[in-house]
Amino acid sequence: MILVTTFEVPGHKITKTFGLVRGNSVRARHIGHDIMAGLKNIVGGEIPEYTKMMAQSREESINRMVKQAKDLGANAIVGVRFTTSMAMQGAAELLAYGTAVIIS
């Protein structure tokens, strides 16, 4: 499966468009990580626990989007984008979306 953020795949022609595909993941914060994040907030710097959590959420969202595209018969997804939103207090959603297509 080819994933691109552009609306074309260089060297390929889009022969069929299936439409929107998406995958999402909602993750809640962990109280232990919040304590560490609070300490990091005082001294500054990266919060590795949250970086890891967001990376896992991003991969899960991509995998779900790809599965949906494969189920439609697509071999590529163009215009891939990510967005995040607060689902509830202490939980965030990461959404991956794009357009499923067949390229030749």
Label this structure with key terms.
four-stranded mixed sheet; alpha+beta; Translation Initiation Factor IF3; single chain; elongated; 37% helix
- Gyration radius over CA: 17 Å
Shape: elongated
| Second-tier CATH architecture | 2-Layer Sandwich
Tally of structural domains: 1
Number of strands: 4
Q: What helical percentage do the residues reach?
A: 25-40%
Distance between the terminal alpha carbons, to the nearest Å? 12 Å
According to CATH, what is the class? Alpha Beta
Strand proportion, as a percent range, falls in 35-45%
- Structural class assignment: alpha+beta
Describe the structure.
The radius of gyration is 17 Å and the shape is elongated. It has a single domain (2-103), classed as Hypothetical protein apc22750. Chain B (Translation Initiation Factor IF3, 2-Layer Sandwich), CATH 3.30.110. The protein has a four-stranded mixed β-sheet. By secondary structure, it is an alpha+beta fold. The protein has helices at 31-43, 48-72, and strands at residues 2-3, 14-28, 76-88, 91-103.
Task: List the topology elements.
Elements (H helix, E strand, L loop, with lengths): L1 E2 L10 E15 L2 H13 L4 H25 L3 E13 L2 E13 L1
Parallel strand pairs: 1-3
Antiparallel strand pairs: 2-4, 3-4
Structure at a glance:
The protein is of the alpha+beta class. The chain has helices at 31-43, 48-72; strands at residues 2-3, 14-28, 76-88, 91-103. The chain has a 4-stranded mixed sheet with strand order 1-3-4-2.
